Amino acid sequence: MKLCVFDFDSTLMDGETIDILALSFGKGDEIAAITREAMNGELDFFDAIARRAAALKGMRYDEVVKICENLPLTRGAIECVGELKRRGYKVVIFSGGFRIATDPAAKRLGADAAFANILRSRDGVLTGEVGGEMLFDFSKGDMLRRLQGLLGIGAEDTVAVGDGANDRAMFQYAATKIAFCAKDVLKKEATVTIDKKDLRLALPYV
Length: 206
What we know:
The protein is α/β, with parallel strands linked by helices. It has a single domain, classed as Rossmann fold (3-Layer(aba) Sandwich), CATH 3.40.50.1000. It contains 9 helices and 7 strands. Strand 3 and strand 4 form a beta hairpin. The two termini are 13 Å apart.
């Protein structure tokens, strides 16, 4: 058995979920600026996610659901995941974003599981609060290590694919580290760099 772990936003999905939600809520510029800082490693990830979630306070939950069910997948994502499954890989999504987006995408892609955060809502609107298992800079690495232990898979049989600073944590536990259309801070730690937005280009390295 082998394992391939993908980041979601700007990797499997063509964009940043929270930026897309913010644009619909009239907070696009404010939240996009925080996202850029966080993905470049210039801002603590927890602080960034907390500030961005707070900015969405009052957004209607049903609108969030509708947007997240129709997020655009990156070119080649479905084919890439399908081929990995045919090769016997377990394919898992790790996201510093939100389950409301990763769960429907995981079904579309045929991924085995997805781990992400939760946007809290009450009375049909977002409260501005966030919780979950992917809130910190170290979260993806910690979760990958736990998953490897559960499945009996070592780093030599693990592939990690991501684009931002918080993906560095999972790179620590993967022999194949693919920086996909990534920030410089992640490229420095990659074994493979892909700068064209087509996930099928990752397959020759797996």
